[in-house]
Design brief:
The chain is α/β, with parallel strands linked by helices. About 45% of the residues lie in helices and about 15% in strands. The strands form 6 sheets. An 8-stranded mixed sheet has the order 5-4-6-7-8-11-12-13, sandwiched between helices. It is elongated and about 150 Å long.
Length: about 750
């Protein structure tokens, strides 16, 4: 360096080499321009290497891009592969990736750490051994290569291709960083073919401007013998580095500090992008091309930029979903004849309607049947059966969308609900009160209208009240016989009889329904009653319900009896061994489907709900998502509901047994319209009759006292009208008595 009088050092693709050369630059006071940068920028870098300039960005943006690809493809688990550096580490890339994946709910299932290729004599054998081990230990097939030398990554993909872990026809997915993807422009086609289907991250730059076209032409002319002579990002950055040093030399003195200052203050548009420094590294946010290796070439899928939270612009937005793949690999080992899918089914299911172990010699070849198995065939390492989705279970397995609702139901013996006041149940109390009021009101109106002219409504006060009450009571059965003289009375009676007809028909129908259908109620009405009286309850053996009763509902463990067969519940109930059974909602439906006449479910326990029944797969399995979509399709088409109806619909003999609140009493809302019409009609007729009475009174006053109207208060006038009404009747009674007396004298 002293002999050649070097003024700057350019190069270094790895951070380890950069650190070594930067130490030399410190001793010789020569600026160093590196194409590499650490994954995490430490504030001590500028203090340790004051003459180091990084023509690159740190690894945070690249790691974020990888995480966005994983999220877009709905992969839940990944395998991380990296080659150790000279110091036995990964420059912090693994920690950055783990944090980025954790933010989107993705787990790193396996880490494959390869030693530096310089320390391995048989790299191919080592890689093959590690890949075979990986293949046997995990089903995840999403591989993220964080860092590797070209030699090691070449061995990695060649051995992976032999094991059918890579390739367009497999369900494996590979993601490689820009340090590898950027070198694909200069590698031979055999390496490219072994990486078929791999998704790569590549630094974005413009290849359409005139300066780039001229540079590419000269670059290819100097490398005409090479198979792939297209300039990559490192060649472009090397060109820009020489350009920035050349520009700085023109404005610098002989000392290195002046040269360094001019380099850092320079800004221009280079072949690799905008050249501008901040903190002795490129300041512009990186943009990445998302490419896919297709045979012996790579095709661009889209552009990733961190400016809008990892927003991606697809090249073919309408045709393909980001990251622009025609078919997104499942990222999981698919079942085959050599490795078929293993399905776990509960061997001793409590209710055979959900899962039943059928005859293995069945001619149809089916081993298991039931509701859960039917859904599994319509929608494969999975657990199939009546498995309840719980939060603690979700930590260990991947559940599908639930195919039935689940909750805790308390089933208790039913008792008949009989009452000596059953005849009052067809109507609510409000209806009875309103009908009684309208009956009395109608009775008064009929008396008022008929009393002045109808002899049948006359007599002593006692006789008048008795006649009016008897008339009103008989009208309820259309059996009244009293003569009606007043036309207004006929209108009142007509509307009243129509109301009576509707009330009678409704009463008869509802009472018949109540007497025909057996009305039942639970023998135990609350869980608090069970706990307060230390009554024993039953639950399914080997399920979570027992612990739930103890830990959540606070039942004593001595009062909980686990039952292993459905038939034992009946025996325990009949022998008073248990007072209630706590079953999951689907089981309770099946139980009541069979034993509807003697048992009933308590509605108060419906508030304790769980995740429902679902299928369980290994964590990260794509089958969980696919089965969830299938279950949703079954639900939308109605097939799921039809299966449930076949399972839980009650038989005909159970349709006559219902809980006490299903046949309700008829309320006032059903009759208030008719009641209002009857009341209004009676009131109008009463007012018309009253007006007629007042006019007669006025004529009477004029005839007896002249044209002078007596003065007085309203109450005085009302009293005189009442006296007039009374005197008029007394006059009629006296006239009737005189006629009868004359008739007697004539006869004698």
């Amino acid at each position: 360096m002293k002999e050649k009088k070097l003024i700057a050092i350019i190069g270094m693709h790895s951070w380890q080499k950069t650190a070594l050369v930067a130490d030399v630059g410190n001793r010789t006071q020569v600026p160093v321009l590196s194409f590499a940068s650490p994954a995490i920028t430490s504030p001590t870098i500028q203090l340790r290497w004051p003459l180091l300039i990084r023509m690159a960005n740190d690894g945070s943006a690249q790691v974020k891009c990888m995480a966005d690809i994983v999220r877009a493809c709905n992969w839940r688990r990944v395998i991380v592969i990296y080659e150790e550096d000279a110091y036995g580490g990964d420059s912090g890339m693994s920690a950055l990736l783990a944090e980025a994946l954790q933010n989107i709910g993705v787990e790193i299932e396996y880490r494959l750490v390869l030693p530096s290729v310089s320390y391995v004599s048989n790299a191919e054998g080592l890689v093959q051994k590690e890949l075979v081990k990986l293949e046997n230990e995990t089903l995840c097939r999403v591989f993220i290569v964080l860092q590797s030398s070209l030699t090691m990554v070449t061995n990695l993909f060649r051995e992976a291709k032999k094991l059918r872990l890579v390739g367009g026809e497999t369900e494996s997915a590979w993601i490689i960083p820009d340090s590898i993807t950027n070198m694909l422009d200069s590698v031979d086609k055999s390496i490219m073919s072994s990486m078929n289907g791999t998704i790569g991250i590549k630094t974005q730059y413009s290849n359409h401007n005139k300066e780039y076209v001229k540079f590419e032409k000269r670059y290819r002319a100097n490398r005409s013998e090479e198979e792939n002579s297209k300039p990559g990002i490192y060649a472009l950055r090397a060109y820009d580095s020489i350009k920035v040093i050349t520009r700085a030399i023109k404005c610098s003195s002989d000392d290195s500090s002046s040269l360094l200052k001019n380099i850092l203050s320079d800004s221009f548009s280079g072949l690799s992008g905008e050249i501008r420094f901040e903190g002795k590294m490129l300041s512009q946010n990186p943009k990445f091309k998302i490419v896919k290796v297709d045979g012996e070439k790579s095709n661009e899928l889209g552009i990733w930029t961190p400016d809008n939270n990892g927003g991606v612009k697809n090249k073919n937005t309408k045709e393909k979903a980001w990251p622009g793949l025609d078919k997104v690999p499942k990222g999981w080992a698919m079942p085959s004849k050599a490795k078929p899918m293993r399905i776990v089914v509960p061997a001793h299911a409590m209710f055979k309607e959900f899962v039943v172990d059928m005859n293995r010699n069945n001619s149809n070849g089916e081993i298991f049947g039931g509701f859960s198995i039917e859904i599994f065939h319509k929608t494969f390492d999975a657990a199939v059966g009546d498995i309840t989705i719980l939060s603690n279970r979700s930590k260990n397995v991947e559940f599908t969308q639930p195919y039935t609702e689940s909750g805790l139901t308390m089933v208790v013996p039913a008792k008949s609900k009989e009452s000596p006041w059953m005849f009052m149940k067809p109507f609510t109390r409000g209806v009875w009160l309103v009908v009684a009021f309208i009956l009395i009101y109608t009775m008064f109106i009929v008396w008022f209208l008929e009393h002045p002219s109808n002899p049948e409504f006359k007599g002593s006060l006692k006789d008048q009240i008795a006649t009016a009450m008897w008339f009103a009571f008989c009208s309820l059965f259309f059996a009244h016989r009293e003569r009606i003289d007043n036309h207004l009375t006929r209108v009142v009676i007509a509307v009243w009889l129509f109301l009576v007809f509707v009330l009678t028909a409704s009463y008869t129908a509802n009472l018949s329904s109540m007497l025909t259908i057996q009305s039942i109620e639970p023998s135990v009405t609350s869980m608090e009653l069970l706990k307060r009286n230390n009554l024993t309850v039953g639950c399914d053996k080997g399920t979570f319900v027992g612990n739930y009763l103890k830990e959540v509902l606070n039942f004593s463990s001595t009062n909980i009896k686990e039952i292993d067969r459905e038939e034992k519940y009946i025996k325990e109930f009949e022998s008073k061994g248990i007072s209630a059974a706590f079953l999951e909602a689907p089981y309770a439906k099946v139980f009541l489907h069979k034993y509807c006449k003697g048992y009933i479910a308590d509605s108060h326990t419906a508030t304790y709900r769980f995740g429902g029944f679902g299928f369980a797969f290994q964590k990260g399995s794509p089958f969980a998502r696919e089965f969830s979509e299938g279950i949703l399709r079954l639900s939308e088409k109605g097939d799921l509901k039809m299966l449930e109806i076949d399972l839980t619909d009650p038989p005909n003999e159970c349709s006559m047994s219902v809980s006490s609140d299903e046949t309700r009493s008829l309320g006032l809302q059903s009759f208030w319209g008719l009641c209002l019409i009857s009341f209004s009609t009676s009131t109008i007729c009463f007012l018309l009759s009253l007006i007629h009475l007042i006019k007669n009174y006025q004529r009477f006053e004029e005839a007896n006292r002249g044209s002078v109207t007596p003065s007085g208060s309203v109450w005085d006038k009302a009293a005189r009208i009442a006296m007039y009404f009374y005197d008029k009747e007394m006059g009629l009674r006296r006239a009737q008595s005189s006629s009868e007396l004359s008739l007697v004298m004539i006869q004698s």
